[in-house]
Amino acid sequence: MAETLEIRDLRVNVQDTEILKGVTLTINQGEIHALMGPNGSGKSTLAYALTGHPGYQVMGGEVIYRGQNILALPADERSKLGLFLAFQYPVSVPGVSVANFLRTAINARRKSAGNGQSKPISIPEFRKLLREKMKMLNVDEAFAGRYLNDGFSGGEKKRVEILQMAMLEPQMAILDETDSGLDIDALRAVSEGVNRLAGPHVGMLLITHYQRLLNYIKPQFVHVLLNGRIVESGGPELALELEEKGYDFIRVKHGEVATGKD
Fold first, then answer.
1. What is the Cα–Cα distance from 137 to 159, expressed in whole angstroms?
2. Rounded to 5 degrees, what angle do the CA atoms 144, 218, 171 make?
3. Residue from 69, 47, 49 nearest 58 by CA
4. Residue 18: beta bridge partners?
5. HSE of 251 in the Cβ direction (CA atoms, 13 Å)?
6. Is residue 125 included in any domain, yes or no?
7. For the chain: N or C, fewer Cβ within 10 A?
8. How far apart are CA 239 and CA 221, in angstroms?
9. Full residue range of the structural domain in which residue 38 is found
10. CB neighbours (10 Å) of residue 54?
């Protein structure tokens, strides 16, 4: 049976300031949802709250996944349930190679699986899997020996995020502004990787400001977050309308002051 991530009236504070003011959204496995909105609307706050960042204080609501409210779980337990976050700004970890990081993450998942895959992945099996995923995503095998994101370009960091997703095989993936800081060539390469991983076994939430990402990754659903609430939902045509008109027409429609910039 397909898994569902159901966000119900989620309210979140950051440093005593209310950022999310009642977000409700349902994502089914196999669906691609795009979440758009101007700066400060709460998009990244939603991503971090869903995945358990301790700096984001949940004030109300529920997030139901695999039959339970996951808001009570720490970040690592949410990951073990099949939730994945690709960061807008991936951090560098000098001294830890990409390969060692990925093998550790896979073994942490396996340890909690309880389905016959609880034993650590063997080194030959891991190397075979890593080579397969790197080939599928057109990632240079030399990346495996480099320290995680240390000295990487923006495009390289985002491609390694997608490699992590490929290796961990989540059922629900949140991609927080994956297009941020990428030139056209890097955007195309990262998008091709995401498209290779999309399918019936993973639900995706793409967080972005711009239509340009959606030229490469085609969502079935588009939502607009404004001032901590989802105020519009529709199909891909909604993103095209935002590209044409900007966010001010959404602000005016919902009784906010137009800014003339985003």
1. 8
2. 55
3. 49
4. 13
5. 16
6. no
7. N
8. 9
9. 4-91+170-253
10. 8
Nearest residue to 204 via CA among 41, 90, 84, 89: 84
d(C-alpha 146, C-alpha 123), whole Å: 18
Domain assignment of residue 144, yes or no: no
Q: How far is CA 129 from the centre of its chain?
A: 22
Q: Which of 153, 161, 209, 218 lies closest to 186 in space, CA to CA? A: 153
pLDDT in the model for residue 181: 84
Q: State yes or no: pLDDT of 116 exceeds 80.
A: no
The CATH number assigned to the domain holding 43 equals: 3.40.50.300
What's the total number of domains in the chain? 1
Q: What are the Cα distances from residue 186, in Å, to 153, 209, 249?
A: 10, 17, 31
- The tens digit of pLDDT for each residue in 197-236 reads 999 999 999 999 888 899 999 999 999 999 999 999 999 9
What value does the mean pLDDT take over residues 41-53? 96
Residue 131 lies inside a defined structural domain of this protein? no
